Amino acid sequence: MPNRPDPPTRAVTLTVNGTARTVHVAPWVSLLDTLRDHLDLTGSKKGCDHGQCGACTVICNGQRILSCLTLAVMQDGAEITTIEGIGAEGKLHPLQEAFIAYDAFQCGYCTPGQICSSIAMIEAGHGNTREEVKDLMSGNLCRCGANTNIIDAIMAVKDGAHE
Amino acid sequence: MKKHEEIGKPRRRIEGALKVSGQAKYAAEYQVPDLLYGYIVNATITKGRITHIDETAARTVGGVVDIFHHDHRSDLPKFDMLYKEMDAPPGSAFRPLYDAEVKSNGQPIALVVAETFEAARYAASLLEISYAEEAFDVDLKENLHQAKKPSKGLATLIKPLPPGPRGDFESAYASADARFEGEFLHGSQHHNPLELFATTTVYEGEGKLTIYDKTQGTTNSQVYVSNLFGLRFKDVRVIAPFVGGGFGSGLRPQYQLVLCVMAALELKRNVRVVMDRKQMFTFGHRPETVQRTRFGATADGELTAINHVALAETSRFEDYNEVVVNHANMLYPAGNVTLEYKLVPLDRFTPLDMRAPGGSTGMLAIETTMDQLADQLGIDPLEFRLRNYAERDVSSDKPFSSKELRECYRQGAEQFGWSERKPTSEQGRRGNRLVGHGMSSGMWDVIALPGTATAEFTADGKLIVRSAVTDNGQGTYTVMSQIAAHELGLPLEAVTFEYGDSKLPLSPIQGGSYTTGVIGSAVKASCRALKNELFKLAQIMDGYPLGNALPEDAVFTDGAIVLKEAPHTKIRLTDIIAFNKGKAVTASKSNIPNVFKLKQYTRASHSASFVEVEVDEQLGIINVTRAVTVVAAGRIMNPQTARSQILGGMVWGISMALREETLLDPRLGKYINTSLGEYHLPVHADIHDLEVIFVEEHDTIINELGAKGIGEIGMISMAPAIVNAVYNATGKLVKVFPIKVGDLL
Amino acid sequence: MNNFDYLRAGTIKEAVRGIATQPANQFIAGGTNLIDLWKYDLTHPARLIDLNGLDELKTITELPDGGLRLGALVSNNATAYHPIVEERYPLLSRTILAGATAQIRNSATNGGNLLQRTRCYYFYDVASPCNKRVPGSGCPAIEGQNRLHAILGESAQCIATHPSDMAVALAALEAVVQVTGPEGQRSIPIADFHRLPGNTPERDNTLAADELITSIDLPATGYAAHHSYLKLRDRNSYAFALVSVATGLELEDGKITRARIAVGGVAHKPWRKPAAEDALIDKEPSPEAFGAAADILLAGATGYGHNDFKIELARRAIIRNGAMALDPSCQRPGAQPSL
Lengths: 163, 745, 339
Fold this sequence. Notes:
heterotrimer; B: alpha+beta; Aldehyde Oxidoreductase, domain 4; Aldehyde Oxidoreductase, domain 3; 3 domains; 5-stranded mixed β-sheet; globular; C: alpha+beta; Uridine Diphospho-n-acetylenolpyruvylglucosamine Reductase, domain 2; Enolase-like, domain 1; 3-stranded parallel β-sheet; 11 strands
């Protein structure tokens, strides 16, 4: 295989949580590693690095995507919301509040992905029934088994119980 | 005088806001300057020796700093004793990078360290390793004849081997009116916490290290690393405030810790090593286990004969053991019993405690067997269990310290609507889906261990409680804060619990459902000692406000000492500190279990699960449509987090019955579905209506809090209840788990 | 895991020219499979040619013959939720939504979906032999863990299956794949796009290395009234199909006038047999009729041990999906079984 020492970096500008950030990364750096290692935004989690767990879910140009399966260079110019950009300074988003109220997490490692994923799902207008929500949220694994509490929290926000 | 009650109150997790906003930092997330990244290389053979490692290609990758392996490593100790840690089974613990020998597929054999994660990963893929392969054997079923008794050690003290025979099993079984004989099998399972194992080591200079580690025991990692690298305990600090799930995988220090510390010490740099998901399948796991049961009963439903044999996988170098067969006779007082537990050494990595180790395995066979007997006898499964209810543990001839299993049955049956259940295949259908109802009992032994905590009351009116214990998501942080607040009669907000740090008072590893009992009791004891100190100071304050009152005459409430008989006498705790010249008051206490008292009792939590399944008659797809689990586990500290723990256990039970299994290819000597794409954890769409009930149970024996712990018990009765429900729906008994699509066609 | 160059192509021409300069160059669109494969050390691109700037491939447009053109770069989710697709090709919509997860479907593209590699455990393990990955190295799946594997159309070299759901619906819909290469454009009927492994299992499809998928064209017939996708898998969502079935029917006076059945998870490509569909013509839709069609469709199926169950499961799934197709409103999220 071709061996390329010293991969040249490129300037990539991402608007992350409303702020334009320019990083210099080689093409082989994933968006997830860019967020975690280059921008100190470690709220997006690495649970598998292969698109099999959902912990790295971020909202990219309004859509939830897996940040481990895209490269930073591919997202040059994109608008990205990570868990750090959910809710306002000192005020949690209703979904974050609901996750606390419904005890929708235990270890907390899948939580940012669950929240980003469900916010994007709701904003896209998808998930009309509990059964649909369960299917549409199935890309976010929870090993602690908080599944029912997570879905309860999401349904409460969808139903307007948590505004 | 009403005291402020915190114990037993549903409380939200104190760290909740940090977790939902991405601010909670896990081991790989500490930003430290000039960080190097290590990537682990694993053996691709199952057994043999490394003959050569060619670094040429790997070294050409820009940014590579060093490559560690058995020929290029730190000095490591020669004696097994120095590799022992709190959860080491009898044997010779695996030593990362120690020599050229390969003992299991995927064993770590090198660490590539580079300036970036990507360069380390790429260079790791270029390392060319030559091996001399040897013949291996990883197949449990092909090697059952190799089964041997487990070696004894510390592990068999905590997880006892089965008791000797009682009565005459063979003749009782032969003369029983109803008999069931079954062989059950479940494959290996890997813990797969969502957080990858990770260590960030900060090289502080002069042999001093600060280590952010994914672990279930900060002290355990500290002592282990110190022993391996000849460091002084006080120079090694291990920090783990947030741990992204453990389920037992962090009970032993994992190999990324050794490799990370080695690189940091050799390179005198800060280093991070994170496993990838495939590597999460290369160490401890729930062992593949074959079980054989033969149970016999009389026509009127008295269980008379129990034979339960378990044959479990272990490695060639350690005897991992768990309690698989002991519980049948603790639950059901049959008089003729033989129990057997043996290990089959194979060329696989040593297994490791995984949520409800042993209990979830054993109960799957015991409770499925019980249902088969009930079915033969035409007795309702719940009624059959009630007819064989153990008021006393006949297996060791001891009373139970407390046992509210009967109440679990009663409340669960009522909530579930068990009286509507119909015999096998008569439950009815919904369209193409057959409906089935099943139930099971569960049991988990309460483990008592020593633990330490300190309590400090500060000038600004805060109570600070400290222990090295971790919180992997169980809610320990919140519960310990509640226990402390309760003891001092303070609001929860006035308490800070400092934890997850090896510099704090000694805690055992966090496992076995014992943390609340062990550390909670230590927190309570240290708070009580603190109250005594505060009371003594108050006694000598100006004007002797307490008069001749004794500590038992006073209540700590609302941040003050109040006399029961004279509620207007209120001495503010902050005034006591002011009187102490503003100096905080501290007390430290160890909780040392009274072994002599405890030994007189059988101590266990109990549960009962009631499950409804739907089975698509033609397609064999199974769904657990609703389930109720009722738990008797002594005093419940925080009903909200406790409910979540049990819900989690129920999901694990669903997973054990219907989802997860690490597939082994015995010819290649390795696990083959080593990703979260193919190792199927349940997804949201798999989990339906789950309900949790705690029954009241008072236990004055087990520990000061009367708390039995709940980490395991929620899982144990779930899987067998599902298997029994599937049988009730279809009349088909599956004995190889998990039950898969296709098994019911 | 290797490093690579990166080029964001501005035009189709530039992309096609770029791919030709070096055999190890690769297109990247959604990246959801390519980056996965790269991280497993299974593919080693010299240069990634990013197609995401090719806006002309990002539209869904109606064709003069009544069909619909799905741009190759439209995401799977955007396709599934597109109003015309939902209305006229609900089979495709539901099938797409039964695949992967919402996050992956937002990134993954229509062209990329067709090009995803098999999920065979051994293919994914760089330390195992695999004829698809390293021709001539052997196939451990044949006598190993083959629960996921093919029962039809397999060869002594390879028993892998194609993992796409979307391709199964496209097979039933008789879509046409439009591709552009250095020689210009050509059309590949979906039935000819994926191939059986034979002696060259390293080749998944008939696309040339220097060709680019530009669109997937759907014919006018969409089976909106009578269709169903049924996906059977090891969990209710986020798993590849063990067996899946896409069925489209047209009925007149209670009798079948046109039928299409494609089966996924059983072969190296979506499995269709016109003879099985012809056998349904003029029949009333009944378990017997679908069972007879299934027998034709699955003739010659072979199990390899762990996947033996698929033969019977596929037959039953075809029968069930026939019933489900009569009442599309019974469809459940994730294409789980219903009725």
